[in-house]
Amino acid sequence: MKTRTAILAIAATLASTGPASVHPHVFAEARLEVEVNPDATVKALKHLWRFDDVFSSTVLMEFDKNADLKLDDAELEDVSQTIFTSLADYKYFQLVTQDGKDVTMKPPPKLMASFDNEQLIVLFASEPAAPLKLAGKVDFGVYDPSFYTAIDFTEDDMMEVKPLPADCTRQVIRPDPDTAIAQNKSTLTDAFFNDPAGTNLSKIFATKLELDCQAKG
Q1: Is residue 122 part of a domain?
Q2: Global confidence as pTM
Q3: Is residue 1 assigned to a domain?
Q4: Residue 59 belongs to domain spanning
Q5: Pairing assessment for the beta strands 136-142 and 149-152 based on DSSP bridges
Q6: How many domains is the chain partitioned into structurally?
Q7: pLDDT tens track for 191-214
């Protein structure tokens, strides 16, 4: 039976290990582009994730059905569909809030997987379920609620807004884990450490792009 692996099942390889301890096993470098309409509403979030060599090799071995040490178009489509299906229950690891309230995003219409320099690349775009006006404080981030996958924005400019409205300022917030735990100590129960996905509190550790925009009339 095919075991599922990370990105919380990205590809059928490690789920048989049971609940993950509270540290990541899979690593990805990410880019996020917030595309903005002329009326200052969010048009789309565009994601790019580049996975570590070890995990990428695992995916290659799992999906290389003809054993030619590469993934052809059909095999890459299998990878894409597996990730697409696996991440649906986790909102594709997206975190979007406005003034502290969750913003619902539509599922992406598709997801594309490719390999570059022997690393797995995942690309997708999603849109807000309802028009999202850039007003107040709007946060965008990416996080795995199980803590299995660490998705890291290595540089602040890996999170960008195109175009940034004139009345908005941006900053990238990188929470310190010890500080985040201390600030949320009263809500981090044993259940969080045993099953982070069941509490949805791992988002306190997510790197976020925060836009602070003047109220629109």
Answers
A1: yes
A2: 0.82
A3: no
A4: 6-213
A5: unpaired
A6: 1
A7: 445 554 544 556 767 899 999 998
